[in-house]
């Protein structure tokens, strides 16, 4: 994992805006499950970041195609946010997470805040299968306990019941994983050119 992965995401974004092909990356093309996160910062640093888009895939993808695809998907198709605009480029921070060490949890609290990302699967009131995930840094950045993170993740995944019973919590299937993460600012990217 290196900053080169993030630089390639910036290259992909610039190539999209400029209508030119993206340069071939020099890093390994090994397959990984991955997420690309775009954030903005008023001062161009990694402090006080505001999420602008985060989308990824749990199926291992070759890094060259996967990072290009998810750099653009998270920039333009995260339904929580309007698409990133060219005028935002100087405030952007890119994070790339390569997901590793997937393990089934014994129960919904079988994970560590700050160490594990969590992916939960559950059935809603109509019996439909739902899922949602948080990357390893999310619960720690939000200051959440494991219980609060699970509650938030259920809501993110579409759980709409007012109360969450212990019986329901015990029915959650949890997969924990870890992340190899790099993060660069727009200025870091410019300095790398």
TrEMBL record:
InterPro entries: AMMECR1 (IPR023473), AMMECR1_dom_sf (IPR036071), AMMECR1_domain (IPR002733), AMMECR1_N (IPR027485). PROSITE patterns: AMMECR1. Residues 1-193 form the AMMECR1 domain. SUPFAM superfamilies: AMMECR1-like. Pfam families: AMMECR1. PANTHER family: AMME SYNDROME CANDIDATE GENE 1 PROTEIN, AMMECR1 HOMOLOG. This is AMME chromosomal region protein 1-like. It comes from Linnemannia gamsii. The gene is AMMECR1L.
């Amino acid at each position: 994992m290196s900053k080169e992965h993030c630089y390639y995401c910036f290259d992909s974004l610039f190539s999209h805006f400029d209508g030119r092909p993206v340069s071939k990356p020099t890093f390994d093309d090994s397959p990984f499950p991955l997420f690309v996160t775009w954030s903005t910062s008023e001062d161009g640093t990694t402090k006080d970041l505001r999420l602008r888009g985060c989308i990824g895939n749990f199926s291992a993808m070759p890094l060259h195609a996967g990072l290009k695809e998810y750099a653009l998907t998270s920039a333009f198709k995260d339904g929580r946010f309007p698409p990133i605009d060219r005028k935002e480029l100087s405030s952007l921070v890119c994070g790339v997470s390569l997901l590793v060490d997937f393990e089934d949890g014994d129960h919904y609290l079988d994970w560590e805040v700050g160490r594990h990302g969590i992916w939960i699967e559950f059935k809603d009131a109509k019996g439909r299968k739902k899922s949602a995930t948080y990357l390893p840094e999310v619960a720690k950045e939000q200051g959440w306990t494991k219980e609060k993170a699970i509650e938030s993740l259920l809501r993110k995944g579409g759980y709409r019941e007012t109360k969450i019973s212990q019986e329901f919590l015990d029915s959650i299937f949890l997969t924990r994983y870890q992340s190899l993460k790099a993060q660069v600012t727009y200025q870091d990217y410019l300095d790398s050119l």
